[in-house]
Amino acid sequence: MARTSRPSKPKTPVVFNMSDQECLWSKAGVTAPRLCHNAFDCMSCSFDKAMQRKKALGKASAGLEQPGEEYWTRENWMATPVEQRYCRHMLTGRVPMKLCINAYNCASCAYDQMLDDELAAAAGTTTGMAEVAGFEMPPSYYYHSGHTWARVEYGGRIRVGIDDLTARLFGPADEFRLPQLGTAARGGGLELAFSRGGHQARAACPLEGVVVARNPEVLKHAEAANRHPYEEGWLLLLEPTRMQRDLKGLKTGEDSVHWMEGEAQRLSDMITADTGQRLAATGGRVVEDVFGAAPSLNWDKLVDDFLKV
């Protein structure tokens, strides 16, 4: 059926583990209401830097401005009632109760760093899982055309993995070879390597960034990426270098659903042409190991057609 309009992509990144998209400064009552446009990565936010530098209030709000004072100083902030000095992690729902003792200078806050380090190797909860042509996918994730995904984590980091089509098409891997910590991964570069039974494959890293964590579970038990590709089977955590630009080139929302429908049909047609079989499914989902079920399929052709895009 022909479509008359193309679904629009979100104007701001979908951020996980956040209660809403309001800027932390405005949520704390320091500034007028405004939305965050930097995925809550305060340390790289130009507005946050301006606030840290000028401490300008503009209007009295939430009791943070002292009468007769033009600028918000640390002394004035410390004089604010304790119950109004909210930590940004409390404001965003990350922790139930925490007060800031560092004047919102998150970059030098030991507590802030501790929480970010704790989450670096922990996968969050997948929300809104959809069933698309026999494959699972969260439409709120971002997808590279080479069948890898990205999602924006709290603090602006990017978690990366393979999608369900890759996991089911190639089956359980024997080994994953991932970039080392500190490596600059290239957006679209074939940085994610895996192997099975002597066959080799490389998949694209969806965004450009520096590797800050690798999934130790996948490195020890490669099949974890196939069992739970969107959760425990994640591969890398990146500190993105051009997040806004790179996300615009990925598929998300309805666009990603329509794309996956087309990819599933393309795979089905290929299997039928090469083997005379149909794309098998159980309970509405594609079998867990397509290549294992149809070993006459050409591994290298599958890699070229679905991963090297």
Q: Separation of termini?
A: 25 Å
**What order do the helices and strands follow?**
HHHHHEEEEEHEEEEEHHEHHEEHH
Spatial arrangement of strands, main beta sheet: 3-4-5-11-10-7
User: Using DSSP, what is the number of strands?
Assistant: 13
The gyration radius over C-alpha positions equals: 23 Å
As for the number of domains, it is 2
The CATH H-level superfamily of the largest domain is RNA polymerase II/Efflux pump adaptor protein, barrel-sandwich hybrid domain
Outline type? elongated
Helix content: 25-40%
Supply the CATH class of the largest domain: Mainly Beta
Let me know the average pLDDT: 78
Estimate the strand proportion. Answer: 15-25%
Individual helix count: 12
Label the CATH architecture of the largest domain: Beta Barrel
**Class by helix and strand content?**
alpha+beta
- Major β-sheet, in short? 6 strands, antiparallel
